[in-house]
Structures are given as structure tokens and as C-alpha cells.
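anyone seen this seq b4? input:
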Amino acid sequence: MPWLWALAIAVTAAGAYWALVVSPTDWQQGETVRIMYVHVPMAWLAMGGYTGLAIVSIMSLIWRHPLADLTARELSPVGAAATALCLATGSLWGKPMWGTWWVWDARLTSVLVLFFLWLGHAALVRAFDDTERGARAGAILALVGIVNIPIVKFSVDWWNTLHQPASVTRLDAPGMHVDMLYPLLTCALGFTLLFAVVVLARTRAAVMERRVRALEMARARRLDAPQ
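predicted toks r here
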């Protein structure tokens, strides 16, 4: 964990310096283009993290693995935070570009739905006194909500939206100059490492908490047992 924390912080710091200081401004957007270096990685993490949530939910439902339940439980608050940052930075970017903080187009609305799915999962798994029931309910919600991920991804292609289409993942021609692409990918790697280490740290703490509770319950049973 210490090495992973150090690597995540180092890569994120290098990406932030590259993006905010070294990379050039856009000829149309000016300095506001630098919001991209946070907004785009957060969007990727919001979708990728929810895909990971669906995977551990499948593991929970099929193999009944308690570690999958704990990982899903600790993943949803982090995913919700990343999605909230995506929405917030998108609004900050949209105001100077579109002249408004928010529009109800397909991309923005589907990301908002994704945010509510994250929040719903975080609340649902904590709504039951029986942790197993909460984990099952959360897993079902996560698998139902996975249908929203392709909607988020392809909404700019399926509908006419204000949001620009994909530029980094285009295969036919590069949509971004390398002076902006490389710092963006570095920031994305740094934020991904931070995302992963936070989830791992939360899951590790949850495992230790469960062990402590089990020890306390065993101690209480021994004290209540007849001598």
C-alpha cells in the first residue's frame, strides 16, 4: 500500500504539472481547456468503475464471496465521488463553451443517471441490518444499471447532443495533438491509480473492521457462556 500510494501521488503530480503548466492552451477554448485534464479522466473512471462494480457484483451473486461484497460496498462511494467531479467539471467547462451550466442532452443526462446509480448502490447496501441481504440487493441494482454504461458511451453517436464526440479513442484519425494527449493520459493514469488505492484502502479497513467485530462477538459469547 505505501508503494502504491507513492506511485499514485507521483504520477498524478507529474500529470498535473504537465497538464496545467507545460501543455499549450487551445486556440479556441484558451485556458479553459485545462479542465479537460480532470473532467475526462473522471468520466472514464465513472464508467470504468461502474463496470468493475458490475463484475464484483457477479462474483458476489454467483460465488457468494464476502470479499466481493466488501469491495462493492467500498467502491460505490469512491465511484460516486468520481462521477460528481465529472459532472462538476463538465458544468465548469460547459459554461464558457456552451453559455450554460447544464443542458438536458443525452450525454449529460445519462451521466447524471449514472451518478444516481452510484448513490443508490451506496445507500442500498447500507440500508439492511443483514449485510448479506444488502449486498444481494446492491448487486442486483449494479447489474441492472450496467445497461446505462453503453448509453453514456455512445450517446453522442446515437443522438444529436451538444457534447463533442470521442476524440481520444478514435481509430480513423488522431483527434488531439500529442502535446495535449500525453498529459491527458498521464493524468488519467494517475487518477486511476488514486482511485484504485483508495478503494483498496477502504476495502482493507472494512476487512479489519469485520475481523474486529467477529473477535468481539466471540469474546462476548465466551463471557456469556455458563462457567
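The chain is about 75% helix and 0% strand. Helices lie at 2-22, 36-63, 66-98, 106-124, 131-145, 148-158, 178-224. kinda curious what u guys think
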